[in-house]
Amino acid sequence: MTRNRALKGLVALLGAAVLLVAVAAPSADAQTPAKKDPENANRTLVWIPKTVNSTFWLAVWEGTKKAAAELGYKEVLYKGTASQADIAGQVNLVNDMVSRKVSGIMIAATDAKALVDPVEKAVAAGVPVVTLDSGVDSQKPYAYIATDNIAAAKTAADVLGRLIGGKGTVGDIGITAGSQTGREREDGFVKQMKAKYPEVKVLAVQYTGCDPAKSLNIATDMLTGNPGLVGFYGACDGPGTGIAQLVKQRNVKGKIKSVSFDVSPDQFLLFLDGYLDALIVQDPFQMGYRGVFAMDQVIHKQSVKDKLVAIPAKVVTLKNISQPDVYDLLASYGDIKSILEEKKIKRGQ
Question: Does the pLDDT value for residue 240 go beyond 60?
Fold first, then answer.
């Protein structure tokens, strides 16, 4: 059974409220080891994101460092490529970390199939692997901790569907075809639109690797080829930024509605100015935090209590941005917190 099918099973369980994980702190059982091991001071973990140039992946790193400090680990390295399109580069990084004999690898796989071999070889070599955000098509990783992408994408479809009045043509800008996260966000969005908003036509997805410039070009082409287009869906912050830039350039704020996953500084500023209508914001800090506790259980030969964890995302709009739970989630991203403070956006009570 692949990770992808396993996650589908998890989603079904989530519907029965079996494994739903709160966005707040993880449970005491999940975060408290039987005993802090002094040997952890000699152990190095590594976090390998899809790319180093992302607010999201840095927030995951902050979560890993917080948990590692609590458990007494020496350090958590941050190793990645400059582009998530560099799949071979990520494969080489995994192999390099195994050669360096790190104590554990946490990774967001750029490609669910291409990373199977290096991940399985790492485990075989005695280096445990936990996948965060994006998994691999293998059962060898000891845990998979991610946003419930299918549910979140369905929510994005509902938000956009309501914004456009349940009819019209919308553009769909995705991550990459090989990414597990990308597949889930595409499937969840398209299936929900088809099921609940039959009068909405979703254009064929175009993948941009979360690159804002490419996303702007794709969005421009979509609008040029479909002058009556009424909305856009972005599966990550790059498409969100590109879509918002197009809305700003064409002066169509309020006329073209848009919903995007994630939050990054450029995208968030455009959102605050009204060029994006809603954001689907994940909790990367929690992914990293829980990832280290899962890794610690593996290293100490304990049973991993939650091998598959789906963390819910939140819908963020200008109307709810000061709501305590929403504000706190946004503020968990360091650079977004700075923008909130600079813009004097206060946390509500």
Answer: yes
